[in-house]
Amino acid sequence: MPISETFHIPRHKSHIPTARQRVRRTLVGWGITGELADAVTLSANELATNAVTHCRVSCARIRITLTLDGPELVLEVSDPDRDGLPRPRDSAPDQESGRGLALVAASADSWGYRQDPYTKCVWARFTLAQKQAGARVPVPS
What we know:
Layout: E1 3-10, H1 16-29, H2 34-54, E2 61-69, E3 72-79, H3 100-107, E4 110-115, E5 120-127, H4 130-133
Antiparallel strand pairs: 1-2, 2-3, 3-5, 4-5
């Protein structure tokens, strides 16, 4: 049975560290550590930063969901700017931004997005190593 953790952050850059910490804490609670935890946390950081930076809806809240289902972990970051779809870019070496989706693509097994009725969701999928697939998983309350 899949388990998940969902939380929201306000659409402001100052809340990105909170999102990163919450993702990391959830992963540790599920027994997921090491390189996989680093990859998921980096991807959450990049997707949340993109949502905060590019969402054109004022006073928006960003929803972050982690779902653990057997050997698969799914990260979803949603915001209410349904039509502001993610577009990977080629960034010059001297540019300070524009590499977030490339980092997610390099860290995750797959990534993509979907448009829901009032939001868009950018997702990334990760496969747990055999050792972590049997990690201790809390019983949902």
